[in-house]
């Protein structure tokens, strides 16, 4: 009969968890879940930041190449640089073109028409300028624009070359400064966070 009873002083086996153990376990799991969620969010933000920086770097390289190519062909005597109220610069200039068989100064752009006579425009100008674009919800973004102006100064073509320029004036997003026969151009983007901005500084020697 005594074999049916547990020995004296021995507690029966306990099954399940106490309320305190359940609370501690829930707290640990909640902490781990929060940490995992934050890690996933940080990874997503990091990926978005890398993608944004890479895209901006490509656009900055294309804008730099475009400016270098066009300013090298510009005539110094036709170049006009002005500083806008936000500290950015604006530059207008002419290119060598052929009109009625004669070499003159103006603008050539294939989008102006199918024939050489329509594509080559006497006394038209190219202009690089900065403009704020409204994004909605009270937000705006600065863009570098390339514009084709007719002989009356009216914009006929416009291309956005670079977005997210710094909102300046320190540093401005676009500056062009003459130093003797050389012009130094600086393009600066803002980026989404500290250290995400990019800068391109290069020199060009236009035609005399």
Strand content: 35-45%
Instruction: Please tally the helical runs, counting DSSP H or I stretches of 4 or more residues.
Output: 2
User: In total, how many beta strands?
Assistant: 11
- What shape does the CA trace take? elongated
SSE succession: HEEEEHEEEEEEE
First-last Cα distance: 119 Å
Q: Flag low-confidence runs.
A: none
State the secondary-structure class. alpha+beta
Biggest beta sheet summary: 5 strands, antiparallel
Question: Nearest-angstrom radius of gyration?
Answer: 32 Å
User: Can you give the mean pLDDT?
Assistant: 84
What does this structure look like?
There is one protein chain. With 208 residues, the chain is of the alpha+beta class. The protein has one domain. It has two helices and eleven strands, in the order αββββαβββββββ. It has helices at residues 19-72, 116-119, and strands at residues 80-83, 89-93, 95-99, 102-108, 120-122, 125-136, 139-149, 155-165, 174-179, 182-188, 199-204. Strands 1-2-6-7-8 form a five-stranded antiparallel β-sheet. Strands 3-4-5 form a three-stranded antiparallel β-sheet. Strands 9-10-11 form a three-stranded antiparallel β-sheet, covered by helices on one side. Strand 7 (139-149) and strand 8 form a beta hairpin. The radius of gyration is 32 Å and the shape is elongated.
Topology:
Layout: H1 19-72, E1 80-83, E2 89-93, E3 95-99, E4 102-108, H2 116-119, E5 120-122, E6 125-136, E7 139-149, E8 155-165, E9 174-179, E10 182-188, E11 199-204
Antiparallel strand pairs: 1-2, 2-6, 3-4, 4-5, 6-7, 7-8, 9-10, 10-11
